[in-house]
Amino acid sequence: MKINKAFYGGAILLMALCATSCNNKNFQVNGTISEAKDSILYLENMSLNGPQVVDSVKLGEDGSFAFSEKSIADNPEFYRLRIANQIINVSIDSTETVTFKAAYPTMAMNYEVSGSDNCAKIKELTLLQQGLQARLNAIAKDINLGVDAVENSINQELTAYKDNVKRNYIFKEPMKAYSYFALFQTVALGMQQALIFNPRSNEADIKVYAAVATSWDTYYPNAERGKNLHNIAIEGMKDMRIVKARQQERYIDAEKVQSAGIIDIALPDNKGNVRKLSSLRGKVVLLDFHLFAANHSMERIMMLRDLYNKYHAQGLEIYQVSVDPNEHFWKTQTAALPWVNVRDENGSDSQLMRTYNILQIPTYFLIDRNNTLVKRDAQVKDIDADIKALLAR
């Protein structure tokens, strides 16, 4: 039987078009952002190496936009819509069409989304995170709270937030894009951004990362994001094993430190002058071991500054020992601080750390006017009250 040449040619063309279509799956992100005429709206891919611009458009009077892009992975991928510092987070699964409606400059907090359950959940998580940030800011600014009360209140807020997100989002559907998104949410503490779920310092958080990683292995085998989660969880486990080993080596009951006198410290300060801890005899001293490169450093520095401002004129001094490995970074961070800042170049492996039984960074001690070590942080319930009592002696 003869085959019509026109039919044969058409069939070949149809197969070629099908192959091209199958290999070039596109997703659509469209909608309107009002009150943003002449603003540049960016569509950025949130790659593992950071944000990368995919496309952009200059918005007109009505604020309408439409992006059509090729899907770059078989697993959910993450993007964001951005005007200046206003951001809407977007997840894309294959060939979705997702529509957003918002107004500038409040688009990050107030927007509508349709076409994607993951994007709707990401919006819920974003609003929850913004509420958490507002509560943390209010706690940090409350002048009626002492340093310990601020720290305890912040920890309570973070714990409650994490319990809610684990129960109602991550553990509920760990294979979903919004669960992956939740792992990398941050809050500002002081002047620094910190992960809410931090697998480098929290054993329970490692399990959360591992749960999502395992789920992604099942639903999206060989996905780079899944491999990345596994690597993060494994590194976190290594870090926690090191911390536990050091704690077992160094552990001494905190009660044994009380009224033990001090072991003198003599280290160069940020101007190159050797400063001795014993030279502060006659003052009440807060001896603080600190790492400026840590996530919560700025929050702690703000708390110390508050204590210094309140009690320095009455006889309080702060002697702060940095274990930062980068000397230039440390000098930059301490240039404007009014108290004694010294640095141990041996960092967390120094003999000084072992001598003072430092189980974790940061750690502080209270020393009375006679150079006697009175308490360490584990024994302090209200630091303001303890400082006042020492100053009154």
UniProtKB/TrEMBL annotation:
All residue ranges annotated as the DUF4369 domain in the record: 27-118
Keywords for this protein: Signal
Domain of life: Bacteria
Keyword Signal applies: yes
Residues of the signal peptide: 1-21
Key word Cell division present: no
Domain (Alkyl hydroperoxide reductase subunit C/ Thiol specific antioxidant) ranges: 263-374
PANTHER family assigned to the protein according to its UniProt record, in alphabetical order: PROTEIN DIPZ (PTHR42852:SF13), THIOL:DISULFIDE INTERCHANGE PROTEIN DSBE (PTHR42852)
Protein name: AhpC/TSA family protein
